[in-house]
Amino acid sequence: MKKHPITRLMLSVTSLVLIIASMMCMTVACSQNGDGKNSSSATTAPAVTTADPDAGKYDDAGYLKDALPEVANLGVKIGMLYWSDVENPEFFVEDDGNGGTVELAINRRNAKVESRLGVEIDYTGTPGNAKKRGDYITKIRTSFDSGNPYDIYAGYTLAMATAATSGFCSNLLDYNVLDFTAPWWPQKLIEEATINNKLFFTTGDLSTNLLYMMYVMYFNKDMMTEYNAGDPYACVDNNTWTYEKMIEMSHKVDGMQGGETPIYGFTANTMHTDPFFYGAGLRTLDRDSDGKPIISEKFGSERTQNVVSLVEGYLSDPISLLGSACNKTFQEGRVMFLMSRARYASRDLGGATFNYGVAPIPKYTADQDGYSTCLGFPCTFYAVSGAAQHPQEAAMVLECLSSEGYRIITPVLFEVTMKTRYTTDAIAAKTFDMARAGGSFDLGRIYSDALGNLTYSIFRNCICKNNPNFSRSYAASVPALEAKLEEMIAAFGN
User: Fold this and answer.
1) Mean pLDDT of the region 327-346
2) Domains of the chain, earliest start first
3) Which of 30, 175, 417, 447 has a CA-to-CA distance to 485 between 20 and 30 Å?
4) DSSP strand pairing (356-359 vs 293-295)
5) pTM, whole model, 2 decimals?
6) Is residue 376 helix, strand or coil?
């Protein structure tokens, strides 16, 4: 395993200064009594000190600190197997002098963790994206068989779900150094991914891609004005930002699809249509009264069929463009709406010649409670190996990576990069807040590989392959899905 050199010097950590309440002043009351003698009474209020229950919990910037020791000389080397074809920098960045603010923050975080815990993180990269996730699992299995396993796995989401069901990961709930109530761990994921009191992987502020992979709705503000289509921001504010409203707006360009440079109302990559399912408040799996995963009543409901009927009709209309050319077409200023990930702005819109906005994924109906979205799969899940040589220390490293990421990386990535640098509209900033708050973690999506791709993909295939009869496709898949679900539950034990 090759050690990545950390070249940046650590910034010294300033300690918190507690402000001590001042003593109350002595009050002296003097009066003249009846016999001509002066009498005085002096009352000294006792010093009152009230202990601040939050004293020491927050750093100078107001961010919550973790409960790990400030200095822990663990003196071990922690081996981490990470997927080297990750789409955005996350683990470390080679210091070539050209790194941006996020890249610099990643290296600062890493240096802080190693120095604080007294560990050396030994990074080993191997391809493991959507097409190569099987190779990543093979790498894990080989390390197990050789008796030289890694301590930490950091892999593509679906690969890590397979690692969990294959018995390669330890139960993170067994490590008391992992504080899953802390803000650097997404509570929705913790709740969703825990089965039979076992949690085999997690993510959070240690993963930059958790934020990069949020789905949002981009829109061309110039086209909105030119075709008098309305204002998505106003719709968000008055709670009318729905599928039907977006479809109504996009149809303002009807009749403009012909010619050498056609324009469109909506575009998306086929794989990026999943947010239509989650934006409608739908999910594939739920829990029974005992916490056992079961097929959600919402999955096969009339509501899902109605969403499919609406969206499939819209996507099959010439007003919509599906396929890999979606990003380029929007970048050229020829599309009113684009459904894509948050990272698209940073990657492709820096040189946009038109004004664009960023709205949350619309609702299906206005009465839904808030806006909901999902994450793209190229996000990283982290696990402690079931055969780790230093399991407790590895868990401490995960806690520290996420905690320090929360204080060092996320403020830069989210507040500066995503909200300011990559948008042309200050109002769009709140969209990223809403997307982060409304991110859903559907168990059926997380474990879709183990479930035979019989969950969200049924919806996707119906709306993207001109099959409006979702109910029939769902009913035909239920027996196989139930069988796969039982196999998955069995993999978690009792």
Assistant:
1) 92
2) 76-211+377-408 (3.40.190.10), 215-374+443-491 (3.40.190.10)
3) 175
4) unpaired
5) 0.86
6) coil
